[in-house]
Write a structure and sequence with these properties.
193 residues, alpha+beta, binds flavin mononucleotide, NADH Oxidase, four-stranded antiparallel β-sheet
Length: 193
């Protein structure tokens, strides 16, 4: 794991567990492989996410062999390919639109669980929405009722200097807008000037 003091980048407005701040989305992946047991621990966490009527509408399609990763490279955008090719595991998250009205919301929860468990295992994750969804559906043979959400790059972090120069500047944990601009009491309010 690359050493980094997260508090130099992120401060919570209210006290929270450290791991929420420590999860972020680097682009510099090392070529170290992810052990089967570690990978399945991460997917297991995602399995325990809550969902509407416990329908568990999420599905995870893995690419962790050279052959399978190559298939994913055929539909991932250039801007993401530039860094994600080093990630040993790619996980496409899809959800069954016929399962419930909350399928997308539920799939998002499972991604959150996956990302946090990965962090606990010393891994990093980076979600990508930047890929050709129709092509992915075709290449991976995904039935029409499933919605494709994101491809998650999973692996071990490497030094930012290993990234192409144009990505190095962005290789740091991002901030968030203040909670007071996100939480409303008793009803929605337009932001005041
Ligand atoms: C659904 C989704 C799609 C994303 N798509 C991309 C993407 O295509 N390329 C990319 O570099 N980052 C992508 N990201 C990463 C976000 O930009 C990142 O999570 C966000 O800026 C917050 O930063 P953090 O994850 O480091 O806290 C995506 C994240 C999510 C959740």
């Amino acid at each position: 794991m690359v050493n980094m003091d997260i508090n130099n980048y992120r401060q919570a407005d209210h006290p929270i567990e450290d791991f929420f701040l420590k999860r972020w989305s680097p682009r510099s992946f090392s070529d170290q492989n992810v052990e089967e047991t570690t990978l399945f621990s991460v997917l297991e966490a995602a399995r325990w996410a809550p969902s509407g009527s416990n329908k568990q509408p999420w599905r995870f399609i893995l690419a962790r062999t050279e052959e399978d990763r190559e298939k994913y490279y055929s539909f991932i955008n250039e801007g993401n390919l530039a860094w994600c090719k080093k990630a040993p595991v790619l996980v496409l998250i899809i959800s069954d639109s016929e399962a419930s009205g909350s399928h997308a919301f539920d799939a998002g929860t499972s991604w959150g669980y996956l990302a946090l468990q990965a962090m606990h295992k010393g891994l990093v994750t980076h979600a990508m929405g930047g890929f050709d969804k129709e092509k992915a559906r075709e290449v991976l043979n995904i039935p029409p009722q499933f919605v494709l959400h994101a491809i998650i790059a999973v692996g071990y972090q490497d030094e930012k200097e290993k990234l192409a120069e144009s990505y190095q500047e962005r290789e740091k944990p991002s901030p968030r807008r203040p909670l007071k601009e996100t939480v409303f009491e008793g009803g929605y309010k337009e932001e005041l000037e």
